[in-house]
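Thread: Newbie trying to understand structure tokens

Hi all, I'm a second-year student working on a class project, and my supervisor (Dr. K.) asked me to get a predicted structure for one chain before our next meeting. I've only ever worked with sequences, so writing a 3D structure as a token string is new to me. If someone could post the tokens and maybe explain what I'm looking at, I'd be very grateful. Here's the chain:
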Amino acid sequence: MRDTFDVPVAAYNVSGEYSLVKAAGKLGWIDEKRAMMEILTSIKRAGADLILTYFAKEAAKILNK
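---
Reply by user tm_fold:
Sure, no problem. This is what the structure looks like when written as tokens:
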């Protein structure tokens, strides 16, 4: 897509995936913070210039530390 169009690439993290991470974290099955950052990092590595996510406020707090 980047080779065809000269526009920023946006990607989003769907609400179902967000809910799954939140529920699994609450139950202690996963490290919620690590899972969140892994998801967002993978989206960025895939080439997104902009990421839309329900994790935005949490991720911003972590990234601004």
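A couple of things are worth pointing out once you decode it. The two ends are 33 Å apart (CA to CA). The first strand starts at residue 10 and ends at 12. Feel free to ask follow-ups in this thread.
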